[in-house]
Design brief:
This protein has four helices and four strands; from the N terminus they run βαβαββαα. By secondary structure, the chain is an alpha+beta fold. It has a single domain, classed as Glutaredoxin (3-Layer(aba) Sandwich), CATH 3.40.30.10. α1 runs parallel beside α3. The protein is globular and about 35 Å long. It starts with 8 loop residues before the first strand and ends with a helix.
Length: 92
């Protein structure tokens, strides 16, 4: 892989969330080794943070790469299919 992962990845998630699992799998397939997982089911204050950062989106996962709000799992998959995920992860 020519792109090096340089951006921090934060994923707001819950314990039992198949979309969170799928999003994490895709990120790992693209070379991400560290994902800061924020468990909003365990820390309600962090759920408020997620709502603020995501523009009011309540569903998990909510994924941030660097300062960019990617959105949820479907948004991540769409970004990858469009060829935008690796450049975003690399900071391009």
């Amino acid at each position: 892989m020519s792109d090096t992962i340089t951006r921090k990845v934060v994923m707001y998630a819950t314990a039992v969330c198949p979309y969170c699992v799928r999003a994490e799998q895709l990120l790992r397939q693209r070379g991400v080794t560290e994902i800061e997982k924020v468990r909003v089911d365990l820390d309600p204050g962090r759920r408020e943070e997620m709502l603020e950062r995501s523009g009011g989106r309540r569903t998990v996962p909510q994924i941030f790469i660097g300062d960019t709000h990617v959105g949820g799992c479907d948004d991540l998959v769409a970004l990858d299919r469009a060829g935008g995920l690796l450049p975003l992860l690399a900071g391009n």
